[in-house]
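Recap from last week: sequence in, structure out.
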Amino acid sequence: MLTRIELRHFKCFELLKLPLAPLTLLAGANASGKSTVLQAIGLLHQTVKDSPFANRLLLNGSVLRLGSAVDVIDQVHGRRSCSITLIDSILGPAGERPNDSAASGEERELLHSWTFAGEPADRSLRLTAMHYEDDVASDTLEGEGLIPPEMMGTLPTRLEELTYLTAERLGPRDFYPLRDSEEDSAVGPAGENAAAILEARRSGEVLPDLVLENAPPTCLLQAQARMASFFPGCVLDVRQVPGTGVVTLRIRTSDDTDFHRPVHTGFGLTQVLPMVVAALSAEYDALLLFENPEVHLHPAGQARMGVFLAEVAAAGVQVLVESHSDHVLNGIRRAVKAGILEPNDAALHFFSPRSADASQVQTPAMDADGRLDFWPDGFFDQFDKDLSALAGWD
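Predicted structure tokens:
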């Protein structure tokens, strides 16, 4: 699990050291750096996915299109270079190179750091340094690509296979393209592969702690049950059109109706489905990055999304989510109070625009009852401010 990300001279940050948890919520004002955290990880993912042997960070690819070096290197302090560092917590005896078959022993941390440089107009950044260290060793790794064979731990696999679901998700469609399951195991940045993955994995297994007891433990039927928790009565029908490379998705929202094309069931269902499919098709210790999970959901659905994200994190899948919804936050708080997720397994970060006299990030702590130790000004408090204004209290 990633326990910290550090960004130096990356976009709006001179230096950011941000603790991460099984479930990390990024909140705050627009253009304050929330998406930047996800984008830093997303660029590493994009590079190892699109060009695994490149000694450059791809700024434009299948997941993100961020422009040129001038757009991603901090213009105030960064000049021509920036760095991304990930701290990864693993289980394994100190001094040994861990692997999937021997992940045992005490917990320790691995540091993986990349430094990149480029001229303002460059559409990618060249790798100038790559560093690894843990509590017993320190190595500077050389080789082709951002993920050389010598790199320790499971982070390389998680970076390659993570899901980054952006805020601009695909709306209702009559047809969805089939994908090579070996090449496209993720739902895609716009959720474009969700229906195809659901068709391919319809009989696949789901992590035990994510299985709902009211449905058989297969991916399709569990996804249907999860969707019904957001949209009561929801039934999914996914199938490949014979002789073509597409699948159809039809949705029923009541026992009294027939199946409908997605366009007739509203945007909310097609916005939630990729998150449900990503979570239910994830393996233990996978990494999910979600932007604005509340899009097109009514308040009750947003709160339910917060609970769902907590359930996913409690099942062993790490989730980083950017949200503007107080309902999502309160759903997470309710999940903690209900004992679904330990309070220390949820990290809440509030971002503010860069200022010379204030911290860019504040981090309230949560107790077992879901209460926060402090509320930064602007941290999901607009309802109270509006109520005070209407009552004439301010």
